[in-house]
Amino acid sequence: MIAAMQRTSPEIVEWYTSDSRLSWVDCDDVARVASKVLSKPEAYIGKAIPLAYDVASVPEVVNILEKILGPKIYFQDEDPSVFLEMFSKPAPNQSICIAWKMF
Description:
By secondary structure, this protein is an alpha+beta fold. About 35% of the residues lie in helices and about 20% in strands.
């Protein structure tokens, strides 16, 4: 699942669905699978390739990052209307990350 997160500072991760649990996948894993599938597409016709291997909420991921990087990362729950407003504008805020590759 592709998720959008906004960083308002190096310490705060905002999220818009509270403690909903999501499937997480590494972008590098997706790239490796895509490369393999695109090199021999006929071998994968009609096949599903499961990629998500972890299910966690954003607060759970922030807790993991705090253990690894130190206690300077905080989760801030935002109302989903903030997310809708942010993406309703013609040019979305450049601080939007479309993957968890921000650390």
